[in-house]
Amino acid sequence: MSGLKGKVAIVGIGEVPTGRFPDKPGIYHAIESARLAIKDAGIDKDEIDFVMPTAAMFSFSYIGELTTARVVEELGLKNCKKNCLIFSGGSSSSTGLQMAGGMIASGVAKVVLYVHSEKLATALTGQEGIDLFSVSGISPEWEVPYGQHYSTVAALATTRYKHETGCRDEHFAAICVSNRKWAELNPNAFFRKPLTLEEVLSSKMLSTPLRAKMSNMLFDGGAAFILTSAERARDLTDRPAYVLGEGGIVTHHVYSQEADVTRFGWARAAKEAFDQAGLAPKDIDVAEIYDSYPIYQLIAFEELGFCERGEGGEMFLRGETWPGGRIPCTTDGGMLSKGHIGAGGGVSLLVEAARQLMGKAGERQVRGARFAVETSTGGTYMDSQVTILGTEIP
Amino acid sequence: MTGPKKPIPVVTPWAKPFWDAANARSLIIQKCKDCEKVVFYPRLACPHCLSGDLEWVEASGKGTVYSYTIVRSNAPSPFLSDMPYVVAIVRLEEGVQMLTNIVGCDPEEIRCDMPVEVTFEKLNEEFTLPKFTPVKK
Questions:
Q1: Domain ranges within chain B, ordered by starting residue
Q2: Does A210 touch chain B (CB under 8 A)?
Q3: Is pLDDT of B1 > 50?
Q4: Looking at the complex, does the CB of residue B15 fall below 8 Å from at least one CB of chain A?
Q5: Mean pLDDT in consecutive groups of 10 residues from the start of chain A, 394 residues
Q6: Would you list the DSSP string of chain B?
Q7: Which residues of A fall within a CB distance of 8 Å from B10?
């Protein structure tokens, strides 16, 4: 089972700040992120032979523009053989990386530009955002009529997880605080003021036991990366972020059909990824774990094997995941603090994993980071996707 | 009632018997005639063995709360006037799970694994939703 191990690498990353930008159209975030990624990779733009935009959720007509190669035209790419949208919701980072990697490893493509852009904050009102996420990915036959939406989805997992493990609300608040510690150091994050456990625990109750400050907020933003073969990567940089392992499993479509909302498929996906990489959780220097809500970050963190089930909350509380901690976690601040940009939550974490490995993370750089794990999930946590990256091939 | 109309189920053709039964205050689920496993939500083919030979059986209507949440704010527009309301996943005795609302009790009394039984709430002339209520002691 070699998969993509050591065959492809991220050689360039680009990102624009996450925030509210009423004057910037969706395409701004795509063009600017892509331009920065091309510049960062140090390649000629006309080396790009495949463009893979990810769908934005704010507008169907904008999805149409991405589908019909607006990015290729805006960037004036002369040798782009194919432009093809890739989308699996929040896990689009992992699915895109795997597909782009497969094409490069098989010789179908040489240099892939992957780009995400979103305008969820300023194209929609707050209530429109809630309403979009009460139907998007939620079954119109079996769940929408019961008032299901993304807060209840997260709350249902939290309630059951608390019941089975004895974990307390302060543990979930600790995850929010941990992510904020990192966001304080991230100029692209929206929420950068220090956050306390008390502030989280006294914020407005949404769907019990989920509170407002345990919930992500929707923003505008974008990110991009350039993927190429390991050989080409070594010509371009001495610190490429090699793909070392990938694992994934789709566990449901309708959320209430999930067999275990306290575990999902993380253990299986993680085993596949770690086995492929030939690494174990103890080898990982930085863990970019998909948050969106603290329960998901906690479950994935535990199921990946960073600690025993039910013990992760204490690690976040003790600061072991903070800057300077034993296992830095979600170092861009995550969707909880950097901000939720649709499918871009996962893209942002993948780009951050590469950034940390390439040594480009500025104030929040995890010193000497060699191996990173990134997770993502789409829909109502329909899948568990795990990617391991590294600066060397073990 | 205020706010936009409640969303009605967008019915899959082969699930229509389920909704017709709910209108008659009956909870039915599918059973595969080949592998004999029970199936919910209604499928065109058995998700266990891909047989196309599925029959409808009456469910016990009894189950337990797998998980629940009380919606106190930021609900979708059509549900704002219902707050607080309870969204729950119920596991039926037969082994299948469904999303529902827990009604007819103080939301604060609900617990995981609590026994519940089906009840029916009319949504409009066309639809009745199966919901669940704690089993009376």
A1: 11-59, 61-137
A2: yes
A3: no
A4: yes
A5: 89 98 97 98 98 94 97 98 96 97 97 97 85 85 96 97 98 98 98 98 98 95 98 96 98 97 98 98 98 97 98 98 98 97 93 98 97 96 97 96
A6: --SSPPPPP---GGGHHHHHHHHTT--EEEEETTT--EESS--SS-TTT--S-EEEEE---EEEEEEEEEE-S---GGGGGG-SEEEEEEEETTS-EEEEEB-SS-GGG--TT-EEEEEEEE-SSS-EEEEEEEPP-
A7: 140-141, 144
What is residue B3's predicted lDDT score, i.e. its pLDDT? Answer: 67
What is residue A231's predicted lDDT score, i.e. its pLDDT?
A: 97
Residue B129 has pLDDT above 80, yes or no: yes
Packing angle between helix A60-67 and helix A26-41, nearest 10 degrees? 40
Q: Where are the domains of chain A?
A: 8-123+219-236, 137-218+242-390
Amino acid at A239: R
For domain A8-123+219-236, is the CATH number 3.40.50.1110?
A: no
Count how many pairs of residues, chain A against chain B, have C-beta atoms within 8 Å.
Answer: 112
* Tokens matching residue A288: 């970019």
Contact A156 B89 (CB under 8 A): yes
Question: What is the model's pLDDT at position B44?
Answer: 97
Among candidates B41, B79, B127 on the partner chain, residue whose Cβ is nearest the Cβ of A147: B79
pLDDT at A37: 98
Check B74 against A155: CB less than 8 A apart: no
pLDDT over 90, % of chain B = 95
* CATH code reported for the domain at A137-218+242-390: 3.40.47.10
Choices 2.40.50, 1.10.3470, 3.40.1000, 2.40.160: CATH for B61-137: 2.40.50
Q: Give chain A positions within 8 Å (CB) of B101.
A: 146-147
